[in-house]
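Re: the pair you flagged

First of the two:
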Amino acid sequence: DRKQFPTFFRVVPSDDYQVKAVAQLLKRFDWTWIGVVTEDHDYGRFALQGLKREIENTNICLAYHEMIPKDYTQEQVLKILKVMKESTAKVVVVFSGEGEFYPFLREFVTQNITGIQWIASEAWVTASILAETYPFLDGTIGFAVRQGHIPGLQDYLKTVTPERYPSNPQVQELWEALYGCCPSTSSLNSPLPSCTGKETLREEHSAYMNTSSPRVAYNVYKAVYAFAHSLHNLIHCIPGNGPFENFSCANLNNVFPWQ
């Protein structure tokens, strides 16, 4: 609600900008005959609508649009791959999350489709598991969320254990993913074997511990700090030097959303 919250900002840019950038990329390389594959969610549908809008009145044409089914079935995916194999379009734009795209690529490998230039959306272009598993993705071009450094993050991650955060469901999920076991604090209804929650992070957990170039986490970090600085400024505002009418400050007992 822009009237109630006029100063609200997104944590990451609107997908509209990504779509505009993809269209500019296609124009830049003079790729005029393209296929588009999207996931069957709002993300994919809105991206396709936006891309169609951006390439209108240009010489870029859509050879096909295929949608990765929400309820994955091999039969439907093979139909999509048949279209890709028979099409003369060698540039394929994919708007999908890595989770939806991974099983699709697993099937793609079996079909001997070659010569594809992949254009990636930010949701999968930096997914290391895809790059490491499928060498044919070498040369993929896409747009990523800006990365940055978060001081102290790695040291903090080493302290995150179910023992320290027993009521945090995300920590429980983390342990299940890393160790394939359920911490004793929540193991009653779990099919996984139980564990103590005191296990130490090992070398194979490097993907979790790698904080060299966080992207989404960096944007969350920036948003939290922006909010914290705003609150700090609001609390320490000096009357006569404030940002509101007549250089006034906010009444701390009754702060409005626009403040």
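Second of the two:
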Amino acid sequence: GGLRPRPGQEVSVKVLGALEDGGLVERDPRLTFVPGHGDVVQALELGVPTMQPGEVSFFLAAYPYAYGRPGSRHCACREPDVPPEAPLLFEVTLLEVRDGPDPQPLPSAARLRLGSQRRERGNFHFARGDFTAALRSYRLALRALDGPAIDSPRPEEEEELQEQRVKCLNNCAAAELKLGRAEEALAACEAALRISPDNGRALLRRGQLLAEQGRDAEAALVLRRALELDPASKVIHAELSRLAKRQSPPSSA
């Protein structure tokens, strides 16, 4: 009884998810999301846009479309964990379809919570090898962290916002590398370092990327700074050693 959801629209659904033995592992009377944003399992991302408001559907999801190879742990919850490689049966009722909301001002605590949820969702996609979906979730997490606020964050909240931004940018760089986009990965590293100049993870990855581009002098400077922060790192020592060998002229016979 109505039009199916269009791209960019927000949906609300009632969801029940069960294992093959009938054990209930998911129950949400009103789950709200925008299909395509990567905030829910792929079975819902793909299935809900085929539905009409008021429709009840059953989706039998093989594990790549549910919680993937590792499964899922529901902490502080009475519902059982989803075992590794578990297929799930979802009962889904499409309650409502509406135009996607414009970014709304949120309290700083809500921005942090939403950013963390989306970054964790990106980590889930990354772990199952869906790097495009992971990158989309990390970018949505950054959008939440950078979005309009209705309050001035307290000093500790501002510090956590910055930490979350750096984590998301480092994760963006990792996903870009998996997708073979070195320039985009380098840009993400540099954005992270503008926020946190001494972030060791971003320094190391930036040094590696500069070295791959043949910018050895710049790479050496960045890697030496990373080594000052983490003198015991075998990875940084190896990268600097590789650069030194490349720069040394070959010895004559």
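The chain has three domains: 10-98, 103-196, 199-245.

-B.
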